[in-house]
Amino acid sequence: QSVLTQPPSASGTPGQRVTVSCSGSSSNIGSDFVYWYQQLPGAAPRLLIYKNHQRPSGVPDRFSGSKSGTSASLAISGLRSEDEAEYYCAAWDDRLSAVIFGGGTKLTVL
Amino acid sequence: QVQLVESGGDWVKPGGSLRLSCAASGFTFSHYHMSWIRQAPGKGLEWLSYITYSSGVIYYADSVRGRFTISRDNAKNSLYLQMNSLTAADTAVYYCARGSDYFDNWGQGTLVTVSS
Fold first, then answer.
1. What average pLDDT does this structure show over B23-39?
2. Are A72 and A29 in contact (CB under 8 A)?
3. pLDDT digit string (tens) for B17-28?
4. Measured between CB atoms, which of B62, B104, B108 is closest to A47?
């Protein structure tokens, strides 16, 4: 059971906007930055969003992140078939002195 | 470009030991904190440990503290993970990644299988 809670699955049709939620607590999301990773099937994870809403170079602006209190969200607009992947949120937890990941959300593009 | 290449993954019996390596290139290795993260088959990501650029500060996840040891050799641009007292629960793909609280570059992973 992960310290950060994500829905196990999400889906959308091409062109749609989908969001993935990540719920934590005051010792992690509530006091530190949130990060998002994308893992395509059979590949290593890739940093998608850092420091709540920043995008590394090369990440399309269709991907956006936000944070409010002890929760965060990843939004994907203009959904494309290549967005089908597992998405993980992550944060540093001050109480555990550890990086924690959410359980992952499998996004299906219908 | 940044490249991280893990090696050392293998099949090992319960109770055994293994040492993983990660060769870094394309950036100034000695300037960056580094981490190990693993993923059990069909499961999510689990952070294991990070080491600061100078090896001055090290953190471990509770699940591996006392059994795993992270280290680095900046002269060789290499990161290591010494794993002892392995159990079936340690079966996973092990990734090295650049960073401490977040990871902007990942290796392709190396598979560790613990089984009798």
1. 98
2. yes
3. 999 999 999 999
4. B104
